[in-house]
Amino acid sequence: MRFVLRRLGFFVVTLWAAISLNFLIPRLMPGNPALAMMASFRGRVTGQALKALEIAFGVNTHASLVSEYFQYFGDVFTGHFGLSITFFPQTVSHEVIQALPWTLGLVGVTTVLAFVLGTLIGLVAGWRRGGKLDSVLPPVFVVTSAFPYFWVGLVAVYVFALKLGWFPVSGGYATNDQIAFTWHFIGDVLRHSILPACTLLVTAIGGWILTMRNTVITVLAEDYVRMARAKGLRPWTVMWGYAGRNAILPNLTGFAMSLGFVVSGAILVEYVFNYPGVGWMLLQSVENEDYGLMQALFLLITVAVLLAILLSDVLTALLDPRTRELR
Amino acid sequence: MTTLTSMTVAGGATGAPSPQRRRGGKFWRAVRHNRKATAGVILLLFFLVLAIFPGQIAPYSGTAEIFQPGLGPSGAHWFGTTAYGQDVLSQLIWGTRQSLIIAFAVGALATCIAVIVGVSAAYLRGAWDGVLSLVTDVLLVIPVFPLIIVIAAYLKSAGTVMMIIVLGALGWSYGARQLRSQALSLRDRDFLEAARVRGERRGYAIVMEILPTMTSLIVASFLGTAVYAVLTAAALQFVGLGNPNMQSWGTMLYWAENNEALGAGMPLWALMPGVCVALLGAALALLNYAFDEISNPALRPVRVRAQRARRLAPRPGNPGRDQREGPPLPTPAPPSGRPPGAADEDGPRGRPLLSVRQLSVAYATDSGLVRAVDGVDLDLVPGEFLAIVGESGCGKSTLLFALARLLNPPATITGGTIDFKGHNMVDMTEKRLRYVRWQEYSVVMQSAMNALNPVMTVAQQMADVCRAHTEMTSAEIEQRSREVLRLVSIDPVHLNSYPHQLSGGMRQRAMIAMALLFRPDLVIMDEPTSALDVVAQRSLMVQVKELQKQLGFAVIFVTHDMSLVSHFADRLMVMYAGEVAELGPTVDLFAKPLHPYARGLIEAFPSIRGPKVVLSGITGYPPDLVSPPSGCRFHPRCAWAMPECSVEQPGLYRRGSTTVRCLLYKDASYEGLGRKEELNRPSRPATAEAPAPVGGAGTAGTHRPAADNGAGAPLVQTSSLTRHFRIGGLLTGHTLHAVEDVELVIGRKEIVALVGESGSGKSTVARLLAKVYPPTAGQILFEGVPVGQLRRRGSVLAYRSQVPMVFQDPFSSMNPVFRAGHGVLRAMKLHRRELDKNGRHAEAVRVMEAVGLVPAEMMLAKYPYEMSGGQRQRVGFAQALALRPKLIIADEPVSMLDVSIRVGLLNLMTKLREEEGVSFLYITHDIASARYVADRVLVMYAGRIVEQGPTEQVLADPRHPYTKLLLRAAPDPRAPLDLSEAADAGEPPKVVDPKPGCAFAPRCPVAVEQCHHVTPALGEVAPLQLAACHVAQMEAASLVGQRASEQAPPEAPAPIASPGGGQQAATRPLP
């Protein structure tokens, strides 16, 4: 389990780096935008919100940078991010927790789905190399994976919501709905999620198909696949147990490495569809100069990505005996 | 993302990026042939034109609000107008520039950072590497886009420059990671070490040697980052984080979104900028992907080629007919009327198990159709051991895989029949074939490391094949698996091991066990021993032979090492250029080879016994199978070639139970090859001289005393040379004792051989002498001067020029992007300053000729991929020679070459010693070749020298049990087979944190109690012969004692004299 422990160490280091960045960015920016912003807010928000801002930016405190730094870490780990300006007087943590399920539901599910589907299609395409699937898919997906997520979203909105009217234009649920666990509400949520989910799926799946196809082709040239054929195994067994089992390992690493890209796409898709998730909230907070909320969201996204990476590392360790005993 | 990881570095003969001069032409041709690349280039050019001449192309200004707002598409406004009355098309055109600037600037910036970080991390290693790769990885997993949003939020409306800086500073990590791993793999390639040994500065090595070989990856990184930059910049502007007054596609999207353009009847305002972003991104992505395909041939579309192969070589329905194009063969007329090659003439051995007729295999390449196997006939009776031998590229493995129906596309069977136990193997469907596979015949592959599935345990891999063919229960499967493992003497506890947990020999044996699961009638083996050390090789062969006796299966065994199978094969089949050259009983073939090629192969092996003869090998190389020579395919290399050989295709002729494809035997009275000098052939090159007993001075292997030139100090002398490596993590580290206490003396004009199995530390000794790294302890004296004390660059360079090195792997010791002359000229530029450009060139020609690369001018201008392995290795010697060295360190210079070529290089070493007065340290695992060239031999085991002395003396009378083991394992066709030797399954240990005691003791048949506790030092066991063995020394001492007692009163058991310098008492505890 040394491998997983090592990855855990990496996780901690990265988390530390992200929190430090979060701490440093506002303090390093030229012309101290924080002060300017505080001035413009002075009439609009109450003392408590101001206090939150002050903590976030480290203004009006006389503590040293170092002690502020430790103070900040303490706040982060106890979830004290102050109050939100956008959703005043709610606390930042409260708002973030509100947005989280939406994103997890939409982005989490579609990302995993895109990875699983893409890997499967890629496996089949690589296995039947030169077949129909293989001659059509790669060129198509080379192009689609270059499409900007938000643009695909815009087209989807235009065609399926505005022109055809099949799906709602935006939002996570109809505005006149009560948030409750009723069949009606759940159906509504699903209906709202179809377009953004498809957008994410269409744009994300191409990459997985292509990488998997290419690794499968490389793996198929390996001796152990030839050996599996020589053994007279069922083609199914060869494809899964030999080609697939081995080809998925680099793909899994690739998955961990490109989660950052996936997140960026998700943020934009949420923005296009006004989907009440973390990404949408992030851009809202930017628009409203709600820096406290913004930074908390950034941290949340980082942690989520890191957790997903850790998970895929564990999966890699389970699938690949060689990683389990690294040196 | 495309898989940058799968990109190949200019490596072997295939798939190497073509070098500079030709690269341009070849590259563009590749681009034109690649549809993805063509599309990408056209798109990119289109946008480039738009970006450079927007004023000329755009119908209107992009900013002027002069039209009616919200117009739909029309002739005047193709894409309509904006809500502010601007022309959408004009805005698009004006916006191109900004996107392209961002794409290229970010691509360039990020790639620069990636190259610097990646390459320096890989090259500096150690702590620097740790820090740099940690930073890279952290940046890689932190979600960059939200981070950019946060930064942009603070910066407020970022301008182009700011955006480039932020995107560039955050976007290099992926490229850096790729470049680092690429550079790491390059580090291990010998051409970098060659540059180091040559005395190049570090900076030169990075800039001139590493970067050019990474071009493809750098381009890929650039294109990848450019795509990312275009998309991210557009996204940032779209969500309002850019400067809203800028003319760009992203800003257009921003305004369109703000004005709800989609719903307000101006859809093109919102959609077209996205189309542009997508097209530009797609153009770059297509280029990237196409580049990947061009540099990694494995990914190229395959269907076209397979079809072409089939079209070019139509598959016939009628079996047994010769499918060769051109005039029909003179009918191979076996005198008996039976099919040629049939074994059944020898007696009633029964119906053949396998019967092959006129089998042909071909595959299409860019340069044409390769007929890898051409009209092969073959019969195999049950229980027979047939070996197929030949140089690489002669179609041995292809034939084997065709028999097993395991050819990978594009190779296909293009003609002939295979009858195996009544199955028509050629036309059988994969589905039906499945039931024949493994139950009736099984396959053992070359490298078990690659042939066993790395993610499954041995048990799982045995179980899946059992389940595929039988209804066995889990318990039955386990029992059977245990049984077969015991058959090959592996402890069944290893059932639950993964392949990487087993040693090389064990893996290979496990694979053989797997092949025997169903007791098949035929086991097909493709060089199963070539990845193993001599000792393991021998024991595996013995094991196979015993199993065969016991279980009665037939074996087809492919190998390039003829002497290996000499004792094991019933019959030998010599293949040349896809055809059977000779097929007959092994004993006959070795005793009296009929085909000149077979004879050449046999004569290419130096022997470890008997009189020494100068060998000649075979001149030239196997032909290109796209257009093989006319007539007899061997005639260009043949010493017996007659005029008609280049015209007439030889048939198969019979002599006794042997068939041979050579026109000499067309005349039924011709009975066999005479001595070569009987041929009246003045045109033959001097290398094809008659084998003659070694006589006077100046011929191979002349025994001479060490350091006999009376010049005082020997050329090189080491004392207690020791090198340890730290392995493992910081806390859990161990020390690998790669070289321990080595005392080595090399005299002037002396060839010293250092012999040992892999991992014995012999290459480390070479690298210590070449000053690749310093010793942990001990010192090297070169002409009496301590090498470790050389500090000034000048004196280090001077040392390097006198002690150059030739590397093992001819495919990695030359930088693929430079011509052959590069290393030779660089070496002179560094070390022979007195030469001007013309002088250097003249000298380069001289050394190329000295190593036999003629015409020298032409060879100097060749690229590595245009040369064969043997030629590359000669370039290595030429580079060394250009320095006017005193000692050349040759690290396994022939081990990766075909046997036919090896002898030529060995002869070159003796020639250079005579003509140039160079000494050699010849490092090898092949004890026979050491005997062929070396004056003295040193045997290494586990980091120590265990025996040394004059070559002839040591080989004739080895004293150390390890030397004895090595000699027994060395294949020798001239010695009778001795199967009674117990198979030694041991392997040399890795000396990690050693305890006192002889490292060989666990494997040693004669070890005594002392051996396990006390490390033996080298001691004299015979005049001039030293061995580090308690037993041998005691025997020697008792001999001396006996002799002494005849003259003088007996003494106490004497402490062993150790004149070689190993004075430290044997009881000295180890550090």
Please characterize this protein's 3D structure.
The complex is a heterodimer of chains A (327) and B (1071). Chain A is built from 13 helices and no strands. The longest helix of chain A has 38 residues, at 183-220. Chain A is mainly alpha-helical and 327 residues long. The mean pLDDT of chain A is 79. Chain A has helices at residues 2-28, 33-41, 47-57, 65-78, 92-127, 132-144, 149-163, 183-220, 223-230, 235-272, 278-287, 291-319, 321-324. With 1071 residues, chain B is an alpha/beta fold. Chain B is 40% helix and 14% strand. Chain B has 35 helices and 24 strands. In chain B, the strands form 4 sheets. An 8-stranded mixed sheet of chain B has the order 6-7-8-3-9-10-12-11. In chain B, strand 1 and strand 2 (368-380) form a beta hairpin. The longest helix of chain B has 37 residues, at 88-124. The model of chain B is unreliable at 1-24, 303-349, 677-710 and 1050-1071 (pLDDT under 50). The chains are: A mainly alpha (327), B alpha/beta (1071). At the A-B interface, helix 1, helix 6, helix 7, helix 8 and helix 9 of A face helix 5, helix 6, helix 11, helix 13 and helix 16 of B.
Features:
A: 327 residues, mainly alpha, B: 1071 residues, alpha/beta, 24 strands, disordered N terminus
Shape label of chain B:
globular
Coarse shape of chain A: globular
> Which class do the helix and strand fractions of chain B yield?
alpha/beta
Largest beta sheet of chain A, briefly? none
N-end to C-end Cα span of chain A? 11 Å
Report the span from N to C terminus of chain B. Answer: 52 Å
Summarize the biggest pleated sheet of chain B: 8 strands, mixed
Strand content of chain B: 5-15%
- The radius of gyration computed from the alpha-carbon positions of chain A, rounded to a whole number of angstroms, is 23 Å
Return residue spans of chain B where pLDDT drops below 50 for at least 5 consecutive residues: 1-24, 303-349, 677-710, 1050-1071
Q: Trace the largest sheet of chain B across and list its strands.
A: 6-7-8-3-9-10-12-11
User: For the largest interface in this structure, which chains are involved and how many residues does each contribute?
Assistant: A-B, 91 and 96 residues
